[in-house]
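User: Show me a protein chain along with its predicted structure.
Assistant: Here is one chain, sequence first, then structure tokens.
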Amino acid sequence: MNIEVLEETAQAMVAPGKGILAMDESHSTIGKRFAAVGLENTEENRRAYREMLLTTPGLGEHISGAILFDETIRQKTRDGVPFTEIMQKAGVVPGIKVDKGTVPLAGFPGELITEGLDGLRQRLQEYVKLGARFAKWRAVITIGEDIPSATCIEANAHALARYAALCQEQDLVPIVEPEVLMDGEHDIDTCYDVTEATLRAVFEALYQHNVLLEGTILKASMVLPGKDCPEKASPEEVAAMTLRCLKSSVPAALPGIVFLSGGQSDEDATRHLDLMNRMGPHPWPLSFSYGRAMQQAALKLWAKDPAGAYAEAQATVARRARENGLAALGRLAEAA
């Protein structure tokens, strides 16, 4: 483990005014997004779409890194240039999703555990050779009747810590992502309690596994009421509750926190991030690692006419990157 390399990469990932583009959708997930806009889910369509994203002019101005899928990190532009090379030239750090998705947690109905630890050391070694400098692992915590259980939280925290330690062994910065889902009728106070318990368990597990916090990034969900909760929360309440939760559970040694959009609208995800940064200063930079909230508008444009709408779709990507980059500084008003 090279401490200097890990710290340098982590700092680059949360550079001021920059965030991470999440484009690590599995074949099934991107298939659903393609189907919604009338696109066939073929390897060439996936490659062409992701080339459009990664070759956006000026992408590196507000995007520090991009999380790729196993297929994507091996792909090239139509001119034969590896995607990782395109990214490096643009100043965008290549990252890779390494978990293998969620499965039911045996003995705990309604709860999930993430798979992918078997053979992970060897896969990480290959991804380093392919150009990756950071990785991502997503755990999923569901709120419902009598859940999450302590067992579910602890099992997922343990898996995140094992993954993180294996990443740092290969000089890859681990993004740890314990996502508390928005699904359900729970109120914002319940989400706060679950998020706080989850984060405390994750950082305790990271400590137990000798994970270097200075070379780790947290990808966090915001504290929000469930989608079906009758009591809605104001943007100011979401921002304040999220900050209070993070300050009570995340060590200051962490180089930065990036948020997932997690079912929020594009505008809400950006506005919440901006509000939190305007409430600063904070112990760590607060930025973004958005997938759908960064891509959805561009995908709709590109799908209508992949050749004719290419420039317009890329301009949309650049605009969303700039808006979120300004939100990461608490300066979203300047985007108008």
